Each structure stands twice: as structure tokens, then as C-alpha cells.
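Postdoc handover notes: sequence design on the structure in folder B. Input C-alpha cells:
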């Protein structure tokens, strides 16, 4: 394995990396044209925080059916038989082409038969996995369930924690092949590139379908009594609310209900689904715990976040606001202007929190 890794790292520096896209590739099929959609944002508008609509621009959705293709490295770079890399140039603009591992068939591992390619950059990240990679699987889910002989290629080292999602979608662990540091040579490859839009999410119908499947898989499990939950990041390395206990106390007193402080890592997926199905109000600092909006229905979410310049990075609060809106919840972001502490931690304003709660109560 170490020799394989060394060869790919060393030789790739001296190999060309031509990127090809779209209809120039044999086996390309367009599923849906690029388009723009407008979505309702009535709840934030009623709170006075934002306009009553937001727009998302989506790229085209396509699939490649490739003969003799290569999947290379842990990020699963996809190459045609002619060793040309498939991708949108904008997706790879941050890569040094010399560092992209190129296919080396003479030390590659052959995968016989047909495969579906699901790996890619950021696959190991929980948020990206649920919001971007699972929708890619959903595009071909029915076809793959009807053809159990087709293997699914995923990124190395992630199956243990991701298998609970796959099992809910009907896929057992035996269906999966992990990428490696070197080259996978595939006889046939089905590849759906990322198709998330300007908010880093895919169109709403994919999350609505995922929600139906996850709720069905969880059965009738419900955690009663947690009408207000606070999604804590107190165990996280960064982006923590320093005065979290104080804010939880304010929420409880103002809303005259107990607040359950939650660390989602302590809950199984069915338990998380039950937790969000039971909760009427959900608060917490922006973080991947807000993927729980995918499991909730008619819940009222408040995403607490710092008011920062996101010109050069992604504002996940927007993505989570949109995700919850797509799945029939009432979502709002409460940005605060304050001094940013070490590791992007902050002290949440008591006054702004109280004002926000009063607005919530006035609408409900």
C-alpha cells in the first residue's frame, strides 16, 4: 500500500491532467438543465430578518456511463479510458493539478462488472455527505436497488458511521467498495457529479424524499417531553457559545418550559429522528446538528451564529435555513455582532436572545 501511494504521489507530478466536461465525453447524458428557483421565506420575513423569498441557482444534473474508467485516490477523481479527468473546472480550481493523483493501471485494482461512483471531495464531512452525496445516490436509488450486483464506490474509511444512512436507504454494507490511495480500474462506471446549487444544497425534492425514507425507517420511535431542545456544541473544538448555560436558562424562563440540552453524538439515528419529531422549538449554535431539520416537521428552529464576512467561505446557516424550509419547518437565523473569541467562540447577547424569543412567541 505504501509503495502504491508513493508511486501515485511521485509519478502524478510529471503526468498531464486534462479536464473534460459534458457532452464532449462518450457516455454523457443530461438529466436536467441548469435552472433557477425561488423559494418562500415567510417565517424570517415575518420576524423582520430577511426578504420573503430567496433564490437558488442550480447547475445541470447529468450522468456519465463510462467504459474502462478509473477512480483514483481517496477523493475519487474520475478519469475516462483516455485518462482525462471528468469535472467542472470551477470544482477543481483550488487543486494543484500536479498533486491530483493520476491513474496508474499497472498498479491498479480492477473492479469487475458495473459500479456506481459516490465518492468525492468532502465525502468524510457529515454535512456534505447528507446534503450533497446522499442526493447523488437518490438519483439512481431505484435502479441500484433493482440491480443488487452493482457495487457502490465510496471514500475510504467512512463506511462504519455512514452505514446507518445507507441501510435506511436499503443498501447493505456488502454493496460498497472503498477508494484507495491508488487506482481503481472499473469495467463500467456510472457517475453522477455533484449538482448542488448556489446554497450548496440540491433541489428541495431530494430532501423531501430522503425525509420520507428516514421517517419510515425509524418507525414510531418518539422521545416524549422534549418540546424545546438546545443543540449544544460544548464538546466541539470551536464555534461554541461561551455562555451557553445562561442562554439556555433565558430560553427556559422566557418560554416557560424546560429546555433539553442535547449532544447529538449520544443518540442513534432513529433516536435523533424521534427527538426532532417531538420538538416544537430547536435552538443552538450553527453546526451540523442542524441536519436534524431533515427529520423534523413544523418545528421552529433558531440558528445562532456570528455575523461574519462569508465572502471567502460558506455560510452554513443559510444552507441549514434552506434545508429546514425545504422539509416544512419554520427556520430563522439569529446573527449576532460581538467580539469573536478564540476558535470562533462567542458570548451570545442576552438582549438579542430575549428579543428574538419574544418575536417567536408573538407569532405563535
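Designed sequence:
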Amino acid at each position: 500500500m505504501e509503495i502504491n501511494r508513493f508511486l501515485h504521489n511521485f509519478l502524478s507530478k510529471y503526468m498531464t491532467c486534462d479536464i473534460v466536461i459534458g457532452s464532449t465525453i462518450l457516455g454523457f447524458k443530461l438529466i436536467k438543465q441548469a435552472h433557477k428557483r425561488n423559494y418562500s421565506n415567510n417565517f424570517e420575513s415575518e420576524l423582520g430578518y430577511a426578504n420573503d423569498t430567496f433564490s437558488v441557482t442550480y447547475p445541470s444534473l447529468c450522468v456519465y456511463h463510462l467504459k474502462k474508467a478509473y477512480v483514483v485516490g481517496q477523493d475519487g477523481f474520475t478519469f475516462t479510458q483516455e485518462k482525462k479527468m471528468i469535472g467542472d473546472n470551477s470544482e477543481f480550481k483550488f487543486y494543484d493539478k500536479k498533486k491530483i493523483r493520476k491513474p496508474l493501471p499497472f498498479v491498479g485494482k480492477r473492479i469487475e462488472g458495473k459500479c456506481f461512483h459516490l465518492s468525492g471531495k468532502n465525502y468524510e464531512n457529515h454535512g456534505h455527505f447528507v446534503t450533497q452525496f446522499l442526493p447523488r445516490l437518490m438519483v439512481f436509488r431505484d435502479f441500484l436497488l433493482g440491480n443488487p450486483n452493482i457495487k457502490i464506490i465510496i471514500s475510504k474509511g467512512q463506511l462504519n458511521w455512514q452505514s446507518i444512512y445507507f441501510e435506511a436507504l436499503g443498501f447493505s454494507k456488502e454493496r460498497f467498495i472503498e477508494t484507495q490511495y491508488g487506482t481503481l480500474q472499473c469495467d463500467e462506471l456510472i457517475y453522477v457529479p455533484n449538482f448542488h446549487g448556489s446554497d450548496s444544497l440540491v433541489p428541495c425534492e431530494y430532501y423531501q424524499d430522503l425525509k420520507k425514507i428516514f421517517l419510515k425507517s425509524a418507525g414510531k420511535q418518539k422521545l416524549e417531553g422534549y418540546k424545546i431542545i438546545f443543540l449544544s456544541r460544548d464538546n466541539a473544538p470551536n464555534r461554541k457559545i461561551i455562555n451557553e448555560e445562561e442562554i439556555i436558562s433565558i430560553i427556559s424562563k422566557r418560554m416557560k418550559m424546560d429546555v433539553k440540552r442535547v449532544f447529538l453524538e449520544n443518540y442513534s439515528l432513529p433516536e435523533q429522528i424521534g427527538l426532532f419529531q417531538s420538538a416544537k422549538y430547536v435552538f443552538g449554535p450553527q453546526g451540523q446538528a442542524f441536519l436534524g431539520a431533515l427529520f423534523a416537521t413544523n418545528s421552529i428552529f433558531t440558528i445562532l451564529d456570528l455575523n461574519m464576512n462569508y465572502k471567502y467561505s460558506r455560510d452554513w446557516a443559510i444552507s441549514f435555513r434552506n434545508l429546514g424550509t425545504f422539509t416544512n419547518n419554520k427556520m430563522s437565523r439569529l446573527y449576532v455582532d460581538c467580539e469573536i473569541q478564540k476558535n470562533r467562540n462567542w458570548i451570545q447577547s442576552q438582549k438579542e436572545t430575549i428579543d428574538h424569543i419574544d418575536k417567536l412567541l408573538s407569532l405563535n
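Context for whoever picks this up: The radius of gyration is 22 Å. Don't rerun without checking with the PI first.
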